[in-house]
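[Meeting: bench + compute handoff]

Bench side (C.D.) handed over the final construct sequence. Compute side (W.E.) agreed to return the predicted structure before the next meeting so the bench team could plan truncations. Sequence as handed over:
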Amino acid sequence: MNRRDALKNTALLGGTAALSTSLLGLLQSCQTQARLDWEPQFLSTEQAQLVSSLVDTILPTTDTPGGLDVNVDVFIDLVFHKMYDETGQKQVVAEMEAFDERCKTKFDKVFADLDAEQKKSILQEAEANSPKGGRGVWGMTVEQTEAVGFYRSLKSMAVWGYCSSEEIGKNVLNYDPIPGPYQGCVPLSDVGKVYSL
């Protein structure tokens, strides 16, 4: 390794250390990880297959990259590993097992082994039976409801991770790191794509 590479690596390590406690730091670390080399940090192999299968069903590859293309499943595993306390980790494992048990009861297979129509049926059922969560204003909950549960929590995390990924932010959503002047009244047809960060 030459001196220039060593300096670059040192700078990268310093930047990574500054972001290590944030979810965005976790997401960015997932972007460079090869799919075949991914080993779950928290999830078991079966649980990782469930999460990957759910992510692929919720955010499939179309004319834009899917959730697995931007490593959303790796991101979710890291969130469970680094951001959940022991009680939260036990709860999410129990909820994953319960989700797969519902699939076995209905189709005699775990979610990852279901065909596309069966997965659609399970997700429609989960969507209909999941609490919606409390409404919030400026990040503060103004209406208390029951916990949203595994499915809706994972779906929300998957969509957030997907929309926050570098690939989607730069190549699918409009990416404008330094916005231009304020334009208060613009026709919606002129807006085009939704803006990312």
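W.E. noted at the follow-up: Residues 61 and 120 are 16 Å apart (CA to CA). C.D. will use this when planning the next construct.
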